[in-house]
Amino acid sequence: MPEWSVVVCGYLLGSVPFAFLLARVGGVDIRVTGSGNVGATNVARMTGTGRGVAVLLLDVAKGTAAVWLAELAGVGMAARTAAGVAAVVGHVYPVWLRFHGGKGVAVACGVFSMLAPAATVVAAVIFTSVVWTTRYVSLGSIVATVIVPPTAYWLGASTTVVGGAAAVAALIVFRHRSNLARIRAGTERRLGRPVGQLSH
């Protein structure tokens, strides 16, 4: 299989809008409800924890599947990494939703659980710690994502994987820029707070 084809497959897998589909089953268009983000956290807030958890697991699975299928195709690490990065890009900019997608954190978790598993475990621990301490899911997502590239490097991951992790981290931080602005302003929702209630 040509290497470019696994990248295309990765993008198409990432583009499957599970958040939109599962929220739609509940009668909600997640693109225009709550934060407007097509992701697990917004689905959980708008339609219930059960659907939110389902979206989270399915989005992680998208990232895992993109890399796994690339491995089955027998391509090298560079192409596997590119397929994983493409899955994150597909989630953030899905062709099926006119390029209005989520923020890519869960998909990235699936991708790097395959490419840099030890670094992903470290990032998951940091995510949990930050969210537990601050109750900001967005802040936990940003910190955990940013920690993956240097941790992967220190733990001996290839330059290709570290570069892919850095590219994904940059995209995810970019997608969270409005969250960062709300955190600074004190208007970002904390975990467990009702929609519309300020963080303080």
Topology order in helix (H) and strand (E) letters: HHHHHHHHHH
**Unreliable residue runs:** 194-200
Secondary-structure content class? mainly alpha
Average pLDDT value? 93
Can you tag this structure with a few keywords?
200 residues; mainly alpha; 10 helices; disordered C terminus
Can you lay out the helices and strands and say which pair or pack?
Elements: H1 3-15, H2 18-25, H3 40-47, H4 49-72, H5 77-92, H6 105-115, H7 117-134, H8 137-154, H9 159-175, H10 177-185
Helix pairs in contact: 1-4, 1-5, 2-3, 2-4, 3-4, 4-5, 4-6, 5-6, 5-9, 6-7, 6-9, 7-8, 8-9
Can you describe this structure?
The chain has 10 helices and no strands. By secondary structure, it is mostly helical. The chain has one domain (about 5-185). The protein is globular and about 45 Å long. Mean pLDDT is about 95; it is low at about 195-200.
How would you concisely characterize the structure shown here?
This protein has 200 residues and is mostly helical. The protein has helices at 3-15, 18-25, 40-47, 49-72, 77-92, 105-115, 117-134, 137-154, 159-175, 177-185.
